[in-house]
Write a structure and sequence with these properties.
single chain; 248 residues; alpha+beta; Ribosomal Protein L22, Chain A; 2 domains; four-stranded mixed sheet; binds coenzyme A
Length: 248
């Protein structure tokens, strides 16, 4: 392990609210994003997508020294070519731009962007309102996690379940596979223990190494951040609401 690996890795997480999305932000989007925005039928999903694009463009533009609308975000699914999947920055590797990696997540009232340098990052935030834990948990948790969940008092189960979930999804987003692999094959530590992946699904390469940190947004939305490598993760929180609401 190198000294750099032992060091703490700061991850900046920029939070916005659903109410921050407004039509004035559409001018920041590129044609691919406008296409997705216009074809997203659900009103709140459309606004969450808009806010995620806007936060990404403003924050990354600041880091790259580019106007937000000029940030070269690439939204091309490696499997089908569609305008979805892990978003990347279309800048030449090894060029003058800093090695910025990022991850977006939206759920309920909250939209987040996690940014770090030199390692892949995955962010997941979940709105637990209305989650039918007894129904969903068997599809998300390993047998051991499920037994640990059921050993808890019922009143604690939703919060515990959501914590397993955000840890798992952030890890799968950091390594870029998303939910193509079943969550119930990925084992993470129990909610009250330091966040960690305990074992990866057998169909994935086992060489993945990630570190994690947990947080909660507005007391209602648990979130986790995973970063590839072995450096401990330190979260630095930012609020983008004022900036988005006044953007014209
Ligand atoms: C990644 C994924 C887990 C996110 O699910 P979610 O909980 O609904 O959504 P979140 O808000 O937390 O995250 C969405 C963001 O994750 C990112 N993302 C999408 N796919 C990703 C992937 N494979 N790896 C990492 N990040 C991904 C995008 O930035 C996306 O934001 P956008 O919708 O604004 O473009 C889910 O979209 C997924 O598993 N996708 C893979 C499924 C797949 O490969 N389908 C094949 C289509 S051909």
């Amino acid at each position: 392990m190198t000294a750099a690996d032992r060091a703490s890795r700061p991850v900046h997480v920029w939070w916005a609210r659903l109410a921050d999305a407004h039509p004035g932000l559409v001018g920041l989007l590129d044609p691919v994003e406008i296409g997705r925005y216009e074809t997203t039928v659900d009103h709140d999903n459309r606004r969450r997508f808009l806010a995620g694009c806007a936060v990404s463009r403003v924050v990354l533009g600041e880091l790259l020294g580019l106007p937000p609308a000029d940030v070269p975000l690439r939204r091309v699914c490696p499997r089908c070519g569609g305008p979805h999947g892990k978003v990347t920055l279309d800048v030449p590797a090894g060029g003058a731009h800093p090695d910025v990696r990022f991850s977006v997540s939206h759920s309920g009232d909250v939209i987040g962007l996690a940014v770090c340098h030199g390692a892949d990052v995955g962010l997941d935030v979940e709105d637990g309102t209305g989650t039918d834990v007894e129904k969903v948990a068997p599809r998300v948790l390993t047998d051991r996690e499920l037994a640990a969940l059921h050993a808890r008092p019922p009143a604690e189960r939703t919060a515990a379940f959501l914590r397993y979930w955000t840890r798992k999804e952030s890890a799968l987003k950091a390594v870029g596979v998303g939910l193509r692999v079943p969550l119930r094959r990925l084992e993470v530590s129990d909610p009250e223990l330091p966040p960690a992946v305990l074992s990866w699904p057998e169909q994935m390469e086992s060489r993945h190494e990630v570190r994690m940190a947990d947080t909660v947004v507005g007391a209602t939305h648990p979130a986790s951040v995973s970063v590839t490598g072995t450096a401990e993760v330190t979260l630095v929180r930012h609020d983008t609401s004022a900036m988005l609401r006044t953007w014209r």
